[in-house]
């Protein structure tokens, strides 16, 4: 995030070129999502509790009976220390370092399982987006980012030239699986009838370990992608030059209006040239938009060629994205306990 905070790139909305942003700011979006996941995982972890010692339906009746004075030895020299069921529960749970639920049935509330798996699914969702975006940006038509590719790595068993994003695809595959698991734990909680039914038992043996194992593998692969991420600065600059001028026409419009142009008329002039230029690009030609604007006196009567050239440089049109990216990076470092 910090390294690329000031590097302008073309942004995309609806998978279409939009206004510029910076690579660092795009990465900051993933960072914010992951920071949200970290906060939620910590919250869920800190709230983990055990059933405690409450008996068959959660009333502690059997423990109360066992601990009652009626079972004390009649010939005991001194009265035996009597504990309540709650005291026994507190003593044992304190010894193992786990807080008991204040109320429970035959099992602890199954909503806890849902909270845990849902938090893991949230993490999987954040890394799914990162991996999916990486897959899009690794396509040769954009080519801005790529996952690491080993010297002996085979991209495709059928097409030797290919460099498929296999790690990103693996992340998305596993994340899609993890995303299905909260529904199972939701059903387990919602369908735990009265004081307990057993129809959650079999699937919990699969769902809980599978959720953690899949999340662990997702993190392992994501760490490698992020650590060794390949950034093609030439491709980013090429895409920004190709598409950025269209977004930067908003600056031309605003500046011309400041100089006295009619907004609606100038908007139509720029729209006319933009559509014609887009058609040229679609046919594989160079972007003619700057030249078209230079040669239109409806534009140059308000702006000089130097002004138009500067305004069409989309690398200047990223707003406060660099500052926001840096601020997000510092917030992440603070949460992780790293030096700023």
List the helices and strands and how they pair.
Blueprint: E1 8-13, E2 16-22, H1 23-46, H2 61-66, H3 85-96, H4 111-138, E3 145-146, H5 166-190, H6 201-227, E4 230-231, H7 233-258, H8 263-282, H9 289-294, H10 297-300, H11 305-311, H12 321-336
Antiparallel strand pairs: 1-2, 3-4
Helix pairs in contact: 1-4, 1-12, 4-5, 4-6, 5-6, 7-8
Summarize the structure in words.
With 340 residues, the chain is mostly helical. The protein has three domains: 24-49 and 108-231, Up-down Bundle (Fumarase C, Chain A, domain 2); 50-69 and 82-106, no CATH class; 235-316, Ribonucleotide Reductase Protein R1, domain 1 (Orthogonal Bundle), CATH 1.10.40. Helices cover 59% and strands 5% of the residues. The strands form two sheets. A two-stranded antiparallel ribbon has the order 1-2. Strands 3-4 form a two-stranded antiparallel ribbon. Helix 5 (166-190) runs antiparallel to helix 6. The protein is elongated. The model has no long low-confidence stretch (mean pLDDT 90).
Q: How many domains make up the coordinates?
A: 3
Name the CATH homologous superfamily of the largest domain.
Fumarase/aspartase (Central domain)
| Main sheet attributes: strand count, strand direction, barrel closure | 2 strands, antiparallel
- Gap between N and C termini, in Å? 13 Å
**What Rg do the Cα atoms give?**
31 Å
Oligomer: single chain
């Amino acid at each position: 995030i910090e390294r690329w905070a000031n590097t302008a790139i073309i942004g995309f909305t609806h998978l279409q070129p939009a206004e510029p942003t910076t690579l660092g700011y795009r990465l900051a979006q993933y960072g914010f999502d992951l920071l949200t996941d970290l906060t939620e995982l910590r919250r869920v972890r800190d709230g983990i509790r055990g059933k405690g010692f409450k008996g068959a339906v959660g009333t502690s009746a059997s423990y109360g009976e066992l601990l009652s004075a009626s079972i004390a030895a009649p010939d005991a020299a001194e009265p035996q220390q009597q504990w309540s069921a709650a005291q026994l529960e507190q003593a044992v749970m304190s010894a193992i370092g786990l807080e008991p639920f204040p109320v429970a049935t035959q099992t602890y509330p199954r909503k806890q399982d849902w909270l845990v798996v849902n938090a893991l699914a949230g993490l999987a969702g954040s890394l799914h987006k990162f991996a999916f975006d990486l897959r899009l940006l690794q396509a040769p038509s954009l080519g801005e980012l790529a996952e690491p590719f080993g010297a002996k790595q085979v991209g495709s068993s059928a097409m030797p030239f290919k460099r498929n994003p296999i790690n990103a695809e693996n992340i998305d595959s596993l994340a899609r699986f993890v995303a299905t698991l909260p529904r199972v734990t939701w059903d387990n909680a919602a369908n735990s009838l009265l004081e307990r039914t057993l129809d959650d038992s079999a699937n919990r043996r699969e769902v809980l370990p599978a959720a953690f194992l899949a999340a662990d593998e997702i993190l392992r692969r994501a760490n490698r992608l992020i650590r060794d991420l390949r950034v093609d600065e030439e491709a980013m600059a090429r895409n920004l030059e190709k598409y950025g001028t269209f977004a930067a026409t908003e600056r031309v419009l605003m500046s011309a209006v400041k100089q006295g142009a009619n907004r609606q008329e100038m908007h139509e002039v720029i729209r006319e040239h933009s559509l014609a230029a887009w058609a040229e690009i679609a046919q594989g030609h160079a972007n003619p938009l700057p030249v078209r604007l230079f040669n239109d006196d409806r534009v140059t009567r308000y702006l000089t060629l130097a002004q138009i050239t500067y305004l069409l440089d989309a690398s200047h049109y990223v707003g406060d994205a660099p500052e926001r990216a840096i601020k997000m990076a510092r917030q992440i470092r603070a949460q992780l306990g790293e030096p700023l």
